Amino acid sequence: MPGARKIPIGVFDPVFNHLSLDQMIEKISALGIEAVEMGTGGYPGTPHCPVQELLTDNAKLHAWKKKFEDRNIQVAVLSCHGNPVHPDPKIAERDAEIFRRTVQLAERLGVDVIVGFSGCPGGNASDTMPNWATIAGLRNMRRFSIGSGRKRVIPYWKQAAKSRATMECTNWHSRCTPVSWCTTDDAAKAPRSSRRGARRHCDLSHLFWQGCDPLEVIRLLAKNNALFHAHMKDTVMFKDNVAKYGVLNFAFDTKDLAQASETFRAVGYGHSANTWKEIVRTYMEVGYQGILSIENEDPILPGEVGVERAMYVLKNVRSELLGAA
After folding, report:
1. Where are the alpha helices (H) located in 79-167, listed in sequence order?
2. What integer is the mean pLDDT of 176-190?
3. Cβ(290)–Cβ(9) below 8 Å
4. Confidence of residue 119 (pLDDT cuts 50, 70, 90)
5. Which residues, 6 or more positions from 71, have their beta carbon under 8 angstroms from its beta carbon?
6. What is the DSSP letter of 189?
7. Which long-range contacts (CB under 8 A, 24 or more apart) does 176-181 make?
8. Strand 74-79 relative to strand 113-117, pairing
C-alpha cells in the first residue's frame, strides 16, 4: 500500500499494573511499542499516571512526559473508563470528576483522544444499580432503552462531546452496537473536519461475538466521521458451546472455559493473522489517524505474554502492507 500511513502500534497500560512506571517503559520499549494509552482513573486505575500530581506540578508533568519522549514513545490516549451516568449520584459524580480531570490533563499533554465507557443508567429515578436492557424487543424494554438514552446517556455525551471524549461501547453498556454508535444523536457529532464530537472507539473484540464483519464496522464508523481510537484485542468463539448456550455466555477466567461460548484472546488467537492483516489494511484505507492500541485481556496468555504475541502479529502484518507494491 504505497503512501499508506504507518499506524503506530501501542499498548493500554493496565496490563502492566504490576510494574512501576520506569519498569513499564523499559518493558514496552524493549518490545518495540511506539505509543501508549494511559489509564487515568476508573477501571484502568492510575498506577502509571498520577493525574492530580501532574496537574498541579509542572516540573513533575514535564519529567513524566520526558520519560516517554526519551524512548520515542508517544503518549497518545488517556482512558478513564467509568460510569458517569450511574443511578447512584455519588458514583456518577466520582466518575464524571475523573473524566473532567482527564480532560484537563489531556489539554496539558496535547493528547487528542480520551476514552471512556458510554455508561449505563438506572431504569427509573429510584434505581440504585445500573439497568441494562439487553434487547428492546418488548414494548416496555424498548421504551426504557430509548428513554434512558435520551434522559441520561445522550445529554451527558452531548456535553462531553465538546471535549476530546471517545466512547468505548461494550456489550455491558448503553450504545453497544455499531448502529447505536452512529445514531446516538446527530447533535453530538462533529463536522468531518473536526476532531471533536461524538467519537467512537472501535474494539472489535466486542463485535466479533455479535456477528459483525470487522471491515464493515470500520468503514461504517469512518463514513460517519466517528472513528478515533482502536483497541487491538481478539475473541475466540467455541462453536459447540455457542450452539447450546448462545453468544452471551462469556468467560473471563480459564476455569470457566469448558462451558464458555467465547473469551477474549490476544490478536491472532481468535482470528487468523490474515484476518488481522485485512483489518489493519482497512484502517489504513479509511485514513484512520489514531493508534493500534493492544489491550490484552486474554486469560490463556495473560499479561505481557499476550502483548508480545499481539505485537508480533501486528508488526508483521503492518510491514507486509507497507511493503506491498
Report:
1. 89-109, 139-148, 154-160
2. 46
3. no
4. confident
5. 25, 29
6. P
7. 176/118, 176/206, 177/210, 178/207, 178/212, 178/217, 178/220, 178/221, 181/221, 181/224, 181/226
8. parallel
199 pairs with which residues across the strands? 166
Grid cell at residue 294: 493492544
Residues contacting 23, CB < 8 A, separation 6+: 16
Q: Please say whether the beta carbons of 173 and 132 come within 8 A.
A: yes
The cell for 160 is 462531553
| pLDDT tens-place string over residues 56-68 | 999 999 999 999 9
CA distance 34 to 49: 18
DSSP β-ladder status, 165-168 and 199-203: parallel
Strand partners, 294: 11, 232
Are 35 and 74 a contacting pair, CB within 8 Å? yes
Closest by Cα among 314, 321, 301 to 31: 314
pTM of the model: 0.85
